[in-house]
Amino acid sequence: MFYDYHMHSNFSNDSKADMEDMIKRSIDLGLKEICFTDHVDYDLDSDDSFGIDYNKYFDKIQSLQNKYKDNIFLCTVTSYSIIFFTIQQIKEQFMALFYILMEVLYGRQYS
After folding, report:
1. Alpha carbon of 32 to those of 2, 4, 6, 41, 73: distances in Å?
2. Concatenated DSSP letters for 35-82?
3. Nearest Cα residue to 65 out of 37, 35, 40
4. Is the pLDDT of residue 73 over 60?
5. How many beta carbons lie within 10 A of that of residue 30, not counting itself?
6. Element (H, E) at 87
């Protein structure tokens, strides 16, 4: 069985690949599991910061997990490049992720 546990989609600033296209290609190649490892980077390519829209990201992952559940196992991990992070940026990103995870796990809104 073949797996790929390090894939960046267009949610990362270093990729333009659409998640669903990547999933379809992975299925065509016979992969049984893949993991999206999109990341949050600040100030790498420009003066603009780049962060993941977590609501959109996890909605997309969940939708694709449901759509392709009989063909491939999908997981996700987000990572952070902390070289240029400020403490405030770290706090804001992790709190945003925390609230979304609580909503997913416990089915109610936190903020």
Report:
1. 6, 9, 14, 29, 6
2. EE--EEEESSSSSSEE---HHHHHHHHHHHHHHTTTT-EEEE--EE--
3. 35
4. yes
5. 9
6. helix 87-106
What tens digit of pLDDT does each residue of 5-54 get?
889 998 887 789 999 999 999 999 999 999 998 876 655 544 445 567 77
Q: Where do we find the tokens 């992969």?
A: 31
Q: In this structure, what are the phi and psi dihedrals at residue 72, rounded to the nearest 5 degrees? A: -160, 150
81: amino acid identity, one letter: S
| pTM beyond 0.70 | no
3-state secondary structure of 32: strand
What is the CA angle 60-65-69, rounded to 5? 160
